[in-house]
Amino acid sequence: MAGVKIKYTKTERARQKKILKVSERMLPLFEAMEKSLMATINTISERIEKIKEEIEKNEKAAEPWIAVMSDSWVNIDEFISVNKIITKSIDVAGVRVQQYEGVDFNVMVINEDTPLWVDDAIALMQEQLQLLAEIDCLKAQIDLLEEELLDVRARVKLFENRRIPNAKMAIRKIGQKLQDDERLTIATAKVVKTGKQEGARL
Amino acid sequence: MSSMVYLVSSLPSLTFGQVPPISIDEFNNHSRSQLSERQFNILDSIDIRKTENQKNGNQSVALLIEEVFHDISEIRSAKAQNRQPALIRVPNRVVSGNPLQREEQILKWQWEELDNIESGQTFTLTVILVYKLRLQILTRLNSFDKVKGAEVLASVVNPAKNKEEK
């Protein structure tokens, strides 16, 4: 409010009242938005944790046979690669984000002289690559939601700390000034009236 | 014949599960110097990893390799069709367990089958062919390594993270 000049008029008081009314109506909306964004971010973070647990579980399950992946007869990375990650746009808590749909893999044809373990390794790698791609999508969602959350928080603070208190103060000051002016007008009128009456008596 | 005797006698003995005492390249170089060109071409063409060009050598060896690959294909088809595999040579017990155990059991079984092919032979080309196949089995078996395997998995699954760590 400091440095802002207030016009002490009834029109200005009406304008400030309107600002206060709108701000008090908007604040709960932004607060709800903030809560919704925080809840969504938490839900996504929990999902990421669950996926990480799943990845770890798969790694543990593969641990007893992971040695076979260094098989000198096979170059496993020739068998599988990611072509592209498929996503679709959705709205999460009012923010446009990319939702994970799946992974399109390039998988080499397995010949009869390919060792049997390659099938298991490809299945494991596909599973892990899908889970990691989902984590990447979820992390990107969190980034966008956190950006929006910062923006919403700034708005909540603006309404809480500036717009509403400023409007309230302006209304109060204008009210006091208008009241003072009214009193002064009445007092002046009385003085004038008394002066006139005394002049007439003399 | 004398060079065959020399070659067979000069090769270190092989035991299943041991670290290969010589490399395939060393074996090939040594054999090339002792065998005739025809014999070496037969030896060179034999490979436990593939089905092609095996017929020129020993029939039993070629049949073993062919039937193992046939059975591996059958295991794959049976799995895809959700049925029991009908194997012609590889015993069912060999293809149970986790992927590593399965490969080790198949290699062990192949080793034992090579015993049968080799029995009764002393200084023949068959002995040399069997030696090469055994050396391939040992080399492969020796390449199975937990740490390297984990690195291979990580290189495929998380190549970006791997690069960052390096």
Structure description:
The complex is a heterodimer of chains A (202) and B (166). Helices cover 68% and strands 13% of the residues of chain A. Chain A is of the alpha+beta class. Chain A is rod-shaped. Chain A has a domain at 23-152: Helix Hairpins (Orthogonal Bundle). Chain A has a two-stranded antiparallel sheet with strand order 1-2. In chain A, strand 1 and strand 2 form a beta hairpin. Chain B is mainly α and 166 residues long. Chain B has 8 helices and no strands. Chain B has helices at residues 2-10, 24-34, 37-45, 59-80, 99-118, 125-143, 146-157, 159-165. The longest helix of chain B has 22 residues, at 59-80. The termini of chain B are far apart. The interface between A and B is medium-sized, with 30 and 34 residues.
Describe the secondary-structure layout.
The complex is a heterodimer of chains A (202) and B (166).
Chain A: H1 10-62, E1 80-92, E2 95-107, H2 117-201
Antiparallel strand pairs in A: 1-2
Helix pairs in contact in A: 1-2
Chain B: H1 2-10, H2 24-34, H3 37-45, H4 59-80, H5 99-118, H6 125-143, H7 146-157, H8 159-165
Q: What's the helical proportion of residues of chain A?
A: 55-70%
- Taken as a percent bin, the fraction of beta residues of chain A is 5-15%
**Sheet/helix structural class of chain B:** mainly alpha
Query: What is the helix content of chain B?
Result: 55-70%
Instruction: Using a beta-carbon cutoff below 8 angstroms, give the protein chain pair with the largest interface and the number of residues from each chain.
Output: A-B, 30 and 34 residues
Name the shape of chain A in a single word.
rod-shaped
Structural class of chain A: alpha+beta
Q: How is the main sheet of chain B built?
A: none
- What is the number of strand segments of chain B? 0
Distance between the termini of chain B: 55 Å
Order of helices and strands of chain A: HEEH
What strand order characterises the main sheet of chain A?
A: 1-2
What is the subunit arrangement here? Answer: heterodimer
The overall pLDDT of chain B, averaged over residues, is 89
Tally the beta strands of chain A: 2
**Percentage beta strand of chain B:** under 5%
Order of secondary-structure elements of chain B: HHHHHHHH
Question: What is the general shape of chain B?
Answer: globular
Largest sheet of chain A: 2 strands, antiparallel
